[in-house]
Write a structure and sequence with these properties.
- This protein has a single domain, classed as Aldolase class I (TIM Barrel, Alpha-Beta Barrel), CATH 3.20.20.
- It has about 260 residues and is of the alpha/beta class.
- It is built from seven helices and eleven strands.
- The relative contact order is 0.14.
- The chain is about 35% helix and about 20% strand.
- Helix 3 links the parallel strand 6 and strand 7.
- The radius of gyration is 17 Å and the shape is globular.
- The strands form three sheets. A six-stranded parallel sheet has the order 1-5-6-7-10-11. A three-stranded antiparallel sheet has the order 2-8-9. Strands 3-4 form a two-stranded parallel ribbon.
Length: about 260
Amino acid sequence: MTLTINYENHPCFNPQVKGQFGRVHLPIAPKCNIQCNYCNRKYDCVNESRPGVTSTVLSPPQALHYMEQVLAKEPRITVAGIAGPGDPFANAEETLETMRLLRQQYPELILCLSTNGLNLRPEYITEIAEIGVSHVTVTINAIDPEITRKVYRWVRDGKTVYQGRKGAELLLQRQLTAIQNLKAADIIVKANCIVIPGVNDHHIVEVARKMKELGVDLFNAMAMFPTADTPFESLVEPDMLMMNKIRKECEEYLPQMRHCTR
């Protein structure tokens, strides 16, 4: 079923095809299980197009119908992804159903997911591998729990909410385990790392080094976008000088994604 897929046509993972092929992010995952200090999830904001902002949330059948409409207008779309507006695996049932529907209808489509990794359980990895999800991005902003705790307000596991170091340790353990399991399932993994000046900018290269140890394929150091009504709203966005320096240091360990436009 997946033999007709050309995995080189993923514009996020292959800069050579950027502009030739495109992707669609399907907003089917409203709930999130962590609260990042740089994130303010909103709906229907005409002034914003940053990650975490969407005009509506779709059900799996609606997502399939939307995909049909998109492909009818733009056949160069080669990728369907789920990245929010919350986390795909805080909405695991909807995420998996959407992936199944898309695979049944479009066997040639590249399927991808972007997650914080907290609830990316082994059984979910087995299922997405069987469906044919080929690319997964995990956002991991530190590998030191003392830094991680500064990035997140809380972490929710089931009905239990953790704060501080306990939440940070839980999140990190789940993220690292999820990445190991993804690679064991032969899934292509990209690590996103948000560069937050004064919080983790000195630590990004350590994250890249650890990601190499785990077999990650691509590293994306992303400049934090200061967002209103968040604890980090007053922080200054990293400038290009800082980002170039960080990416050059990280490139010693992993290929860098430099063509990301969020």
